[in-house]
């Protein structure tokens, strides 16, 4: 089995190079990650601002400021407050399936534009909110925008990028998420200091900035050759586009593979039914497992509630809002490292290294809180900053493993005929478990206390084992030939090896 575990599929290299056209197009499309990142950064910080809590969630504010009998871990336990955060993810979940049809029928570019437009409307409504209903409706519109962007942008990047640079290009989406979150955390740190108490409005309303960039940029994006062939079979335009993005006229081999993939895809009327067939079983499993595992790393405990967490352990409001800036810088830097090395060292190595790093730091944070933080009082400054250091190391581990690779690997493993459906399942599962974590976190924190870090650390151990055993290496493999990695993997080849026999059996049955 050891030989099988290390096996990598033989790669095929198409002609072409990294062109300025591809760099510009992918950089603009990757701005879709700013939407998701901005919201992740903004929501947790705003939810810890006292004027915001006093206006919309007065019960939470009262528990935080006046109730000296309640446990440290239970001060932010409010289903209404968590609904403010999690409503976006339910909207994104529902939207992702609708976005699949739009992406398939009208192209990646229109879907990217729709994401920017919806996020723009949600940001404007949230900034103008006068009651909790307007606040949550704005979150729903933000969720629609993120649903479209998360569904279409990773596909766009994977289809535009040359195979040997696909990891770096696709990871630019995750980098944009990190930059969006970092910008949001910096903004929260600044707006919290507005003495009049309306800084939270600025934080929420500034969502229109990344949304406008994406919506306007989408107008000028070229459509991918894959989508041009799939939607209207415009082979001449698709080949000219492929020649332009590859910087060479000698693209016949890649173009022929695109035509073959498109021909197969057009025989599929119901891709959501098709993906459940045996021959697509590995892709289906990964489209569910990878986004599920990405959410149970515990990263959203940090991303959504880091300011709340540091308020609990004893840092002041301003210092608590500064802590996500520190971890945001660490996460952004580690994602850049992942972009540089992912196509050299591969996906599996980064998954495993990051997994070990996250497991160790979560165990240490859980141990410190269990030993030093009771239901009342707070950590000493020394231990509080030690927790911040450990959280930063944890974020670095996520930043070069499950952060970018959780988006990269699902975007590159699907055949064209199931690609849009597979990406929708990936996005929907991610949104579903993001919602579950966001909605239950404050209650879990109240009941599990420091044990919540052991809970997520246990999942990190499980997912690291899953990658080691079941995820084949996909680096440098052309996206239209990706099915080879499953046929050569020690486990999945047992499931997909019978594709020809199944096809022959179906053909034989049809003739009788």
From TrEMBL:
Origin superkingdom: Eukaryota
Protein name: Uncharacterized protein
